[in-house]
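*** Query protein ***
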Amino acid sequence: MGWFERLSPLDATFLAIEDTDTPMHVGAVAVFDAAPLTLEHGGVDIELMRAYIDAVIHRVPRYRQRLAFVPLLKHPVWVDDHRFNIHYHVRHTAVPRPGGPRQLKRMAARIFSQKLDRDRPLWEIWVVEGLEGGRFALVAKAHHAMIDGMAGVGLMAALMRLDTSRSIPEAPAWRPRRPPNMAELIGAELKHRATGANALFERIREAATGRGEWADRARGAAHALVDQVGENAVPASYTPLAGDLGPHRRFDVTTHALDDVKAVKNELGGKVNDVVLATVTGALRRFFDRRGVDPDEVDDFRAFVPVSTRRKGQRGLGNRVSMMLTRLPLAEPAIRERYAAVVAETRRQKAHPEVIHGTELFTEATDWTGAGLLAGTARILSELHPYNIVVTNVPGPPFPLYLLGAKLTEIYPLVPLYGHQCVGIALFSYAGVLHWGLSADWQAVPDLHHLVDDIDVELAALHGVATRRSSG
């Protein structure tokens, strides 16, 4: 039988909801010291980089696999790409010298605006040279069907090194496995759905009798999901961040010392992510006020905060995430009270993990139906405007990493936009620095740079409050 691997319902959903205006890839802009990879003519040694990536890509087999679809039933599967070509995926470009931050952000935004080719493995890495200060950048993107934030950290570990070695490891020979034929795909999918339907029937019967572990999980999850849906059936407050998405994106960045962020949470309580959410809340108050929207009237502002369900030690690509809708207190004008309200909200949600388990169980239960049910649910929910913004924070390594001797100095993540959400914020901590990547619809948010400034001002204000409290 030919080799293939079926996409999970969640992974397949990221394919199903994608269209021209909503490319569903995640990404990052990584900046490096170019000196170790600079050639005599001043350019970056792209051939060495391609050879290195080609040699280590076996550590992440998904990157040499493409999509195929089950005939008639249309569920996607992964198959080996017999036409795999590293030159297609690792691309070379430049900004006019000396390229500053503005030029790099514009370049990244254009790359992030373009959908990936579904006839090939769903990833690209653009090597961007010409940056000022003797630097170059990698603009990387991979479809959300392949990867989530935590899986992206694992990918970084596969490509990066802890030392400055420039050696290229000997790669094992790779031969693509035979893809399945039509009959094999249809037969395997029908068997999977029949098995899943039987398992679901048994679990429903178990839940109805009230016995067994699954019944206990289902009861708690069902109550939590009903409460969550009931709370968010009413659309979130309208803000300037809502609108119809177009095909073009803006991308902007900022950085903060992780010690400064930790100083806030150490003095005021909560976690690092509470500092992030409180910073976003205060920054949006400033941003809305500048836009002519009274933030005191925004009484139901919600952030979609993805929560990793990847268990400790669990590896592999694909998505292991659930959703958490967090109410941010934009209508609270006092900075200390605003921060305390964020901490109280996140603690309230963490006290009810059944919501996370509920979304896991729903995804599990839809597995035998194919991606259609989950994708349809996602589309319906987006029309209800259940949230205003996505804020995702992924912890990275606290130590420096190197690519063929070139030190990674900065890395800014990208989260895709979907539905009527015109701004997304992703964060990644690396080597003692918290890196912010902001994506936005090009036309709806022409002033994204102002939101970046507001984030900087708000975090400085929070740090000032914490410093005064510790010294007073």
